[in-house]
Structure formats: structure tokens, C-alpha cells
Amino acid sequence: MKNYGKYKPDYYLPPETCLDWTKRDRITSAPVWCSVDLRDGNQALVTPMELDEKLEFFKLLVALGFREIEIGFPAASETEYAFTRRLIDDGLIPNDVTVQVLTQCRERIIEKTLKSLDGVKNAIVHFYNSTSVPQRKQVFGKSKSEIIDIAVNAAKLIKSATAGLGYSYEYSPESFTGTEPEFALEVCDAVADVIAPTPQNKLIVNLPVTVETSLPHVYACQVEYMKKRLKRSDCVMISTHPHNDRGTGVADAELAVLAGAERVEGTLFGNGERTGNVDIITLALNLYSHGVDPKLDFSDLNSVIARYEKLTGMKVEPRRPYAGSLVFTAFSGSHQDAIAKGESYRAAHPDEPWTVPYLPVDPADLGRSYDGDVIRINSQSGKGGIAYVLEREFGFVVPKSMREDIGYKVKHVSDSEHRELKPSEVADIFKSEYINIESPLRLQSFTFDKSGGDVLLSMRLDNGGRDEVIIGNGNGQFDAAVSALKRAKNIDFTTSLYSEHAIAQGSDALAAAYVGLMRDGVTYYAVGVDADIMTASVKALIGAVNKITGRGETAK
C-alpha 417: how far from its chain's center? Predict the structure, then answer.
């Protein structure tokens, strides 16, 4: 791309080294969460939510555990103003929830915003003005001192108009990341001098990544600088509000918290202007995956997705962390095998921390189902994944020596049809290729008699529509059946596999038996299914013999 020379980094490092955050390797407690879905998220929708839709979304946020919610920009439209009044007048704000409203630093807008809050119990008045170099030069044409005056005059008006109401205040130097840190510090200190916060009623200083312009570590250094240098640091709560222009909004937020931010503003699934706000769900579940209580409840994530998509008209993309339809899915054979083995290990060691390969959290903790969610089958799948599906969804514990054979058959279908196979389709292939192969030989009945040391067998078969009785003997029932078939069909083979298990519990449970017969270096596999385990075993044996003859078909 030939025009790269017209771009240059548009950010400023602090005037001193601020790298204490690099000494911390994890976040040990959840920040204060503030949802801005109803304002920042809503304004970015092609069709913003109507009043009733905003109300439903508000209730969703409360149910998820948000205790600070920016409900809108009341002076921006009648819907925004009416929504604020609806919440207050109808008593819809829980006592432990604080609503936040946004206003520019303009007298008329401030007055209407404050009027919208009449009668509210807990509120944050969030005011902002742009401070970055491009905004000062290109949009406002104002000097640094004039920018400071805008912020200070707004702080004075808001403080005076709300005296005695118990409101909290938040100030944002918009486009903070494009502002010289020394100047951002000067503006925020000037606002704090007017607000005069206390340790009991702190001023929220929000440092927005209005547009991502730097690597996340640069933002962390800027946040640490502000945290260290604010005059009233013990009376200030640092908040972060990242957007996602460079695709690193989550990293910005996490490094900002390491650098001293105590509060995060964001949206569900990262909805917002341009590439969106930071995704609070990802941030919260990142904490959860490290054993930290996120103080938000996403244990029924599918329900959250459904309500979000209904109310916003947006779609959660399939690769969205934690929430996407494919994020807990493995198609790769090696991944499938590792997950299946990890789950088996987990079952045997339930008290150990969660470390199942390729699954950073247990999908069940988020209300996701293992069936059809975790291991899915296409031409890249492995024998272990196919066996996993057959066992988890249909109860067939396929022996290891047989898995490669069924694996090739399933992958051949997926490859030739160029598509993923549903679990039911995998089961259909398994049935047609292995279960109760009854042509040309079909079992009608059998009896055993133990005389002396041997077991004697008499077996009645349907051989292509013709009755046939065969006999055999051996040191056990299965061995006697093998003897009878070898003798009657004049074929030689060795038994390389015999395995059986119950498919389900209960008096009407079925049993499955697996047989592998080797002849001329080739192993022929078949499965018998019946209520009686011995009958299932004989059916599997007959099925494998039918395969050796090359004429095996599944009874329909």
C-alpha cells in the first residue's frame, strides 16, 4: 500500500516512565462495571431502540448484575428524555442501581440533562469535552486555556445546580489518547478543583480511548501517569472507556486496570460506534477464566444473546469470544482427541482446577451444551471426535481399535459432500456400516448347552431366504459361535476385537457388542445391538462374517 507515508502515530507518551503496571501479571478483582449499551451502544444502531425496547434492555442489564448504567443522553432526543423520565416516574430503578446520564459541556444541554433527573435517587452526571490536538485544531479552533475553561465552566454549572442532591460526577477528556498527558492532567485537575470530591464521594475521571491510535501498553502508561499525578488522587476513581478501532479494546481495558483504573465502561458484545466499544462480556469472562468473580452473571449466555439480538437487531458473530456459536467447537481431529481425553481426566479428578485442553472455561458454566457445541464433525475431524459424538449423544463406546475405520467412513461422506455432518448423520453412517448387518446371514435363534468342558451351540440362520441350522463348540458361548460359523461357511479368520457394554440403564436397556474379524491382513468390524448381551454379540459376529463375504448390507 503506497500511501502509508501520510500516516504517523497520533498519541503521546507520558513525560516520565510509567511502567509499574508491567510488574502485575493478573487482575485479582473485578472493576466497577458501567454499561453504556443504552447510550453509546444505542446511538450506533442503524435503528435506535424505542422506549419499550430500551426499558427491556435496562431490565436485562440489571438482571445481569450491572449496578451503574448509562441510560442515555437526555438532551439528544425526546425518546432519550422520555426514557429517563419513565424510569424515574414509574419507580423502575432498583435502589442499588445508579443511573448515569451524558451531557456535553454546554449550558443549554446541561440544564435539560439535569431537569431529566428530577426525583432520581442515585445518579451520575457525566460531562465531557474534547481535548485532543486534532480536536482543538480542526474542530474547535481553541487554545488549551479555552478548552480548560469549557470544562471548568461546565463543572461549576453542574455543581451549583445539583448542590445537596447527592449526585456523583464523572468527567471525560474526550479523545484522551490523542491528548498530551500533561494537558489531560491539567484539565482533570482543574475540574476536580471545582467538584471538590472526597474519598467518600469520588469524582470519576474517565479516560476514554475514543479512537484507538496506539498499542495497548501506551494507553496503560498514560493511565498510570494520570493515576500517579492527579492532585486529588485519593478522591478520584479512574475509569476507562475503550473503543475497538485497532481491535485491541479488551487489551486496552485490561492493561488500564493493571495500571490503576478501577472502573470500566463498555457494552454487551462490544456494540458501539465504528468498530464498537469494549466488550464487557469478554472482559468479565476473562476474569472468570482466571478464577476471579466478575460480579456479573453470564451463566445463561444463550438467553442473553437472544435478547440482545432481538432488541438491537445486531448479530453476535460466530467467533465472538465466549459467546460465538463456534468458539467452543473443535473440528480438528487432534483438538477433538485432546478435549475428549481432557474431559475423561476431569471426570476422574473433579477437584483439580479446570485445565481441559482448548476449552478456557467449561461451556456448561455459560449454559452451553456439550452436545453439538463442543465437538463437531467435518472432513478435518479425527477418529476421537467421531467416537466422542457417538458416545456422548448415542451411548456407543467405540473401541479404540475400531475408531480409525469408522473415522474414515464418516470423513469420506463429509469430504465428498463438502459439508459438516450433524450428530444424527454420524449415527446414521455408523448404523448403516456396522450395526446388525443381516445379509446374507440373519440370526433367527440359537441355543447353548454345556456338556463337559465345552459349550455346544445350535444356531438357526436365514441365509438369503433359506433356513439353515449350524452347530459349533468352544470353551465359551462366543467361541462356540465362532466355531460354528467358521465350519459352516468354510472361512478362516481370527478374532481381533470383542467388546460389549450396556447402552442405557434400566430393565429395557439395550446392549452393544463390537466384533473385529481379521482375514488376510484386513479387519472387518461389525456391531450388534439387542436387549440381550449374548444375542448382541452373536449379531455382531454374524455381521462381521457377512462383511468378510463382501455381500453385507444393513437390514432396513
Answer: 29
Cβ(102)–Cβ(128) below 8 Å? yes
Say if residues 35 and 281 touch (Cβ distance below 8 Å): no
Within the chain, which residue ranges are assigned CATH 3.20.20.70?
Answer: 27-312
Question: How many C-beta neighbours within 10 Å does residue 340 have?
Answer: 23
The single-letter code of the amino acid at 511 is A
276: its cell numbers: 464498537
pLDDT-based confidence at residue 553 (cuts at 50, 70, 90): very low
Share of the chain above pLDDT 90, in %: 82
Q: Which helix (H) or strand (E) holds 487?
A: helix 477-489
Kindly state the greatest CA–CA separation across the chain. Answer: 110
Q: How many CB atoms lie within 10 A of CB 148?
A: 20
Element (H, E) at 249: helix 249-258
Question: What pLDDT digit, counting tens, does each position of 371-418 carry?
Answer: 556 666 765 666 777 888 888 888 999 999 999 999 888 888 888 888
pLDDT digits (tens, 9 = 90+) for 156-200: 999 999 999 999 999 999 999 999 999 999 999 999 999 999 999
Residue of 21, 25, 57 whose CA lies nearest to 38: 57
In terms of Cα–Cα distance, which of 188, 265, 193, 279 is closest to 226?
A: 188
The pTM is what?
0.80
Residues in the chain: 556
Cell numbers describing residue 428: 446414521
Question: Alpha-carbon distance 389 to 383, whole Å?
Answer: 10
Residue 3 per-residue DSSP state:
G
CA–CA gap between residue 536 and residue 555 (Å, rounded): 15
For residues 283 and 264, the answer to whether their CB atoms sit within 8 Å is yes
Q: Give the start-end residues of each E strand in 41-132.
A: 68-72, 98-104, 123-130
pLDDT 10s digits, 421-471: 888 898 999 999 999 999 999 999 999 988 777 899 999 999 988 999 999
* 8-state DSSP, 329: -
Residues paired with 526 in a beta bridge: 515
Give the phi and the psi of residue 97 in degrees, each rounded to 5: -110, 135
Question: What type of residue sits at position 88?
Answer: I
CB 252 within 8 A of CB 218: no
Render 254-300 in DSSP notation, one character per residue. Answer: HHHHHTT--EEEEBGGG-SSTT-B-BHHHHHHHHHHTT---SS--TT
Tell me if residue 238 falls in helix, strand or coil.
Answer: strand
* Tens-place pLDDT, residues 140-160: 999 999 999 999 999 999 999
Strands (E), 382-504: 437-439, 441-451, 454-463, 466-474, 494-502
Q: What is the mean pLDDT of residues 106-121?
A: 97
Is domain 437-554 annotated with CATH 3.30.160.270? yes
CATH 3.30.160.270-classified regions of the chain: 437-554
Domain 27-312 matching CATH 3.30.360.10: the answer reads no
